[in-house]
What we know:
The complex is a heteropentamer of chains A (382), B (317), C (286), D (236) and E (257). With 317 residues, chain B is mainly alpha-helical. Chain B has helices at residues 2-25, 29-55, 63-80, 86-108, 113-133, 135-138, 156-179, 181-191, 193-198, 203-229, 239-252, 259-275, 287-301, 305-316. The N and C termini of chain B lie close together (11 Å). In chain C, the strands form two sheets. A two-stranded antiparallel ribbon of chain C has the order 1-4. A two-stranded antiparallel sheet of chain C has the order 2-3. Chain C has one domain (2-276). Chain E folds into two domains: 6-81 and 167-256, Rossmann fold, CATH 3.40.50.300; 98-163, no CATH class. Chain E has ten helices and ten strands. Chain E has helices at residues 44-52, 74-80, 97-109, 123-135, 151-164, 184-197, 209-215, 233-237, 240-247, 252-256; strands at 6-15, 18-28, 33-37, 59-64, 67-68, 82-84, 169-173, 201-205, 218-223, 226-231. In chain E, the strands form two sheets. In chain E, strands 6-7-8-3-9-10 form a six-stranded mixed β-sheet, sandwiched between helices. A four-stranded antiparallel β-sheet of chain E has the order 2-1-4-5, covered by helices on one side. Chain E is globular and about 55 Å long. The relative contact order of chain E is 0.17. One adenosine-5'-triphosphate sits between chains D (14-15, 17, 19, 37, 39-45, 86) and E (148-153, 180). One magnesium ion (MG) binds next to helix 1 of chain E. Chain C: It is found in: Cell membrane. Chain C: InterPro entries: ABC_transp_permease, BCAA_transport_permease. Chain C: Belongs to the binding-protein-dependent transport system permease family. LivHM subfamily. Chain C: It is a multi-pass membrane protein. Chain C: It comes from Effusibacillus consociatus.
Amino acid sequence: GGSNETGGKDNKNPIKIGVVTSRSGAVEAYGTQEINGLKLGIKYATGGTEEINGRKIQVLVEDDAGKADEGIKKARKLLEEEKVDILQGSASSAVAQAIAPLAEEYKKVFMVDPAAADEITGKNFNKYVFRSARSLSQDAATGAKYAVENLGKTFFHIAPDYVFGKSSAAAWKESIEKSGGKVIQEEFAPVNTQDFTPYLQKAIQSKAEVLIITWAGAGGATLLKQVNELKIAEKMKITSVIPDIAGIKSFGDAGVGMQGPAPYYHALPQNDVNKWLVENHQKEFNSPPDLFTSSGFVAGVALVQAIKKAGSTDTDKLIAALEGLTVKGPKGDYTFRKEDHQALQPMYIVKLEKKQGVDHLVPVLVKELSGQDTAPPVTVKK
Amino acid sequence: MGEKLFTNKILIAVVLSLLVLLPFVSDSRFLLTMMIQVFILAVYGMSYDLLLGYTGIVSFGHALFFGTGAYSVGILLSKTKEPGLLPLAILIAVAMSVLVGVIIGGLSLRVKDVYFSMITLAFAELFFIISEKWSSLTGGNDGIPSIPVPAIFRERIVFYYMALLFLIAMYLFLRRLVNSPLGRTLQAIRENEHRVESLGYNVLQFKLLSIVASGVVATLAGAMWAIFQRYVNTSVLGLDRTVDALLMTIIGGTGTLIGAVFGSGVITFAHEWLSSLSTVHPIFERWLLFFGILYIVIVMFFPKGIVGTIRDRWIRR
Amino acid sequence: MSLTINLLLNGIALGMLIFLIAAGLSLIFGLMGVLNFAHGAIFIWGSYIGWTVYGLTGSFILAVIAGTLAGIGIGWLMERFFVRPFYGNHVAQILLTLGLMIVMTELIKVVWGPIILGFEKPELLQGVVTILSDPFPVYRIFTIGVGILVLLGVHFMLTRTKYGIIIRAGVQDPEMVQALGINVRKVFSMVFAFGAGLSAFGGVISGPSFGSIFPELGMQNQLAAFIVVVIGGIGNFVGAAVGSLLIGVMQTFMAYYLPDAALAVNVALMAIVLMLKPEGIFGIRR
Amino acid sequence: MKTLLKAENLQTYIGQYHILQGVEIEVKEGRVTVILGRNGAGKTTTLRTIMGLTPPREGRVIFQGEEIQGIAPYEVANKGIGYVPEDQGIFSDLTVEENMKLAMRKNEKATQDRLEFVLTLFPDLKIAWKRKGGNLSGGQKQMLSIARAFVNDNKLLLIDEPSKGLAPIVVEKVMESIRELKKHTTIVLVEQNFIMASGVGDDVFILDDGHTVYRGEMDEFKQDDALKKKYLGIGV
Amino acid sequence: MSNPLLETRGLTIQFGGHVAVNEVNFQLKPHTFKSIIGPNGAGKTTFFNLLSGQLKPTAGSVFFKGKDITKLAVYERTRLGIGRSFQITNVFPNLTVLENVRIAVQAKGGVSFRLFSHYRKFHQFEETAVRLLEKVHLAAKATQLAKNLSHGDKRKLEIAILLALEPELLLLDEPTAGMSLEEVPSIIEVIRTLKDSGDHTILLIEHKIDMVLGLSDSLAVLFNGRLLADGTPQEIMNNELVQSAYLGGLYEDAVKS
Lengths: 382, 317, 286, 236, 257
Ligand SMILES: Nc1ncnc2c1ncn2[C@@H]1O[C@H](COP(=O)(O)OP(=O)(O)OP(=O)(O)O)[C@@H](O)[C@H]1O
Ligand SMILES: Nc1ncnc2c1ncn2[C@@H]1O[C@H](COP(=O)(O)OP(=O)(O)OP(=O)(O)O)[C@@H](O)[C@H]1O
Ligand SMILES: [Mg+2]
Ligand SMILES: [Mg+2]
């Protein structure tokens, strides 16, 4: 492919961004946040015109249902039928990893968000892949340092028993040890575990000072509620990555007082971009932006800026423009570092608190860390 | 009767030549992709029909075989980075599936009816779990990306014809099989297992044979799938895969073989079409809803599947 | 010792929770022989209706009643329009109920959105009691109690009334049951609706136990329900309860002592039971 | 004599097959009406059509002056028509006890008495009381099937080949009991065993190819060797 | 005297507390026709099930041609030459009448594992099947599905399937129950011809006493699971217990003749 097919003067080809993400399946809510963010980001960066040099930006969305093979099919469709200039996605890490090789094959930039697996900008990296979302390592780096310094030195980690849980655990372990702490035990429970008591019993018996809870999606609330019920908090400190609003809501009161890293919550950043985002999101979708809205937004902004900078949608030029690019996003400065194309970005440590008039626990800022502070190690093989 | 057979043949010839000509009349590479998927899944569906429609076995573990094929190709090629080893990978796949078929079949065939279905489901789940846990080998849910397949298979048009050929070959093989004395025995087993036994047939042996034959075909389909996608993850072993086989067979019509081709076509295209409608109207963001309704409608109004129903009409006329 | 007892108690509680999920299926699949792959959907609809009514009224009892009634209604419609033509035809049932599963799950997303909802325990049932120095949630004691009540109630209905016999006979030869002067259709409708109500009831009761509900939760628990019914012996209600307890206790102990195998407990247990006793623990060889 | 049941011009289809093509039956109250005919003549289908199991496309079934074609089988049964199907229709997973329990429409004294009566008629059933229906011997199944029909207060009994599989002495007992029952119940009997048919029958209908080809009184028919030869192929 | 073709020693089966077949010592000479009579529930069918392998005895053994076959599976016994028909009709409901018989002929043909040849290649099977259907008056219904047959016709099909196996030993369980009066004689004729052809041995369970008397070389009587008597028809008919407990008054004429 290529962008050598130029249309007439007045009637230029649109710039096509093909999004492969979950519009159904277990993580479809994340997909929605991502797409809303992306569209708003484009709007913001183009000053509302959704055009660059007279070329309309078109966002084409395909549903991968959270399945890798479905994602491959849809990505091929976007690449071959729609001849998209840029790929974007996806809510599931497995899908993103399955699509990344296609980006290489078709020589198109693939802007990853919200998939967080480290391998995407690590072991399985190729030069067409960029990521506006934070990676698991960034979560871990944020949370680990703070936890070692403020919560305790010995850790017990409970995570779901599949690749996501394992690589989260590995990332936390590395960061904790770097900060001088120690992970005494890691326990992996099946994704749809209903009774976590045996695992929590072990946590108590391990005598660790801090319990790390890693759980993406639904089981998290169940786990947290059982933690609460068994009064684990009386025996050890608890930390966990703070999820999206629906996730926090599902905690009920069980999450009160929990501290942990938060990739984004709309009330945390105080800057103009975020203000714009919150206002416009509220206007358009009648709700505040959520966990992955911000990284989707950044993806949009970064792409627009890169295209402007490159002066075209030519892939090589785009890559050159994106590498090292710093954009202003809702959390502040996001920099796509050259080595692995991961966007370094500010991260937050928060504490969940009850607040009048809000129907969920509110993450209250404890500490903000800069992109550099939370930079994960580069694991790309040269 | 003879006339019907003749029209039947004409129909098949027309459809076949359309399929052969398709790459020349359509420049849509995506359409070819879809058709390739239809062909490969159709083979997988037909293999299931051998069990369900001809032997009367309801297996909930058919994905086991599909996954065996896909993983054999995926693991061997990606670990060795040696595309030339594809024939070996397929050979290994077939050998593995025979082994798996004999072992699983041997362990579970003494169990009857729904119990058999459930035990096959248990085995498939166990395999699924192993593939999730043994991620150093399988990549778990993240899978094995960019499987290095021989360059020729990356040519979409070439692969299209290969897949078509594969479908035709497997269809002919299975048709032969169901019309052989062996196939006839299987059908009798479907009807009345105990009576077949008292005719002097060793039912267990025949059922095992059916499982292995169907397993080998499903394995080949799985191998083709891995070559086609150049990607494998645990979903090839998931329950959804088995359900796919079931859906294709039933929608097309059990005990018809060719029905699976229709089933595969309906599922693939309905899926694609409905999921792309979300831009038309927001209600289609819930496209699965309509997909579910489609299933229901097909089962309610074509209880014998597409081909089965057409056949019935035909006979009545 | 205290650990073992604690694990055992938790295992029993989990088992009873699984039983509540499986009880409705045990009637519909076990007794009526309908492979109901929409069971999980009825179950989760119960949860959602219960959640809504609980939120609106603040009364958990009303939530349970509303959820159960909704289940009965869904079951009745389902039987009347979808299941009735396909008694005895397992293959069609699978496909049809799978379709219903998808449709009903998606409808939940249309109504409530595709997100997770927190389901709080009623005040009265919050908190823990201490058993041998370990805390044990009150709600689990509640589920154990409810499970036992359901078991006894349904067991009574099946053994002391004619319904159990009519269903078993009707599954084999509905024509002959009719010829004996029994409106077998009506009985089937009623029992199906009752089973669906039971599923939805399980959905409401287990909602707070999970702590949160989401549309796919039904699908997730469905397999466990099927496994329990099969392990216990299809058609045996008491067997389903025993199977549930077995699975609950096994899961709990495995999670503690051999967590790597926790994922495989259910299916492995089923495979072993079936290979040793092909008709399930309480099943009868045909 | 009063007519209890009348079937007029029964036209029954199964699928696309036209099975009954105008069957006519008339059953007089208090008598035993025997239906004869070769295999595949439509005897069973006639009984099933009366029961509502294979409703007729055309024609009428009049029971006690009321048209009952087209109503559900359980309603037919509840009008007081008992049915003993040719394949016994035993529920194999149910015990003999449960089979009987299922059949007993009412649980009153009279029903209990009748239960006593059938258990003395077929003592085998008492022995096998807790056995599964599927484990019974062929003859025992037949007994159970008959017992199920006898235990209710029926106005009309449709019995399809009761003698099949029964030992001679039991056949004799069944014949006796039918003669006994005749006092308060009317009976339609399909029977291949001519000894039995002629032993208890009062009226006779012969079906062939879905048509009624003969009707008359059993006493006449029994004597008429030509008729017997013509319709039943029985040698003289 | 020739060795018995079939012999049982102490053959016993117990269901729960109920002994259905009780220490039966039984012999069947080759090329003879023996019938088994006895009250309902006496254990006749169960005895057949033990011979053909559907049931395994709790005690005792079965010998066929001097060989102990007690442990053999159903299909192995069939291959040795023991064929049976069933009291409760047992056919292939969704196959055609012809295919029902053809599949049995094929079993005898030993080609069942051939998967690459078309079944119609073996047309001799089909011809045989058609011939057999003619014998039992079912040729006209060859293309119907077996489930659509009337009861009596199914019984005929049952017999055709058995004949197709050409077993050395035929176990017939009330073959004519439900068959119409006019057809019974010709079916009996078929069985009689088999016997007369000399290479078959026949064991028949039947309640139609007149039929039994006409066909059998000898009669065995089962009572409550025990072998009560075994002898010529005349001997058996004169047995008082048989008369009072089995035959009743109805068949007095038949016995006297
Ligand atoms: N389901 C069916 N589909 C097609 N034809 C059928 C079906 N059931 C019965 N028939 C046909 O209807 C005819 C009448 O059958 P029916 O069972 O009434 O005969 P019958 O007189 O009772 O015979 P028998 O003495 O053998 O019991 C037969 O020719 C049979 O083949
Ligand atoms: N599986 C079983 N479990 C319990 N009892 C059984 C089982 N099978 C048979 N019986 C009992 O064993 C006895 C013998 O049955 P069998 O079928 O052999 O009788 P039969 O002599 O063939 O009688 P009929 O002439 O009525 O066919 C019967 O009383 C029956 O109830
Ligand atoms: Mg009949
Ligand atoms: Mg018998």
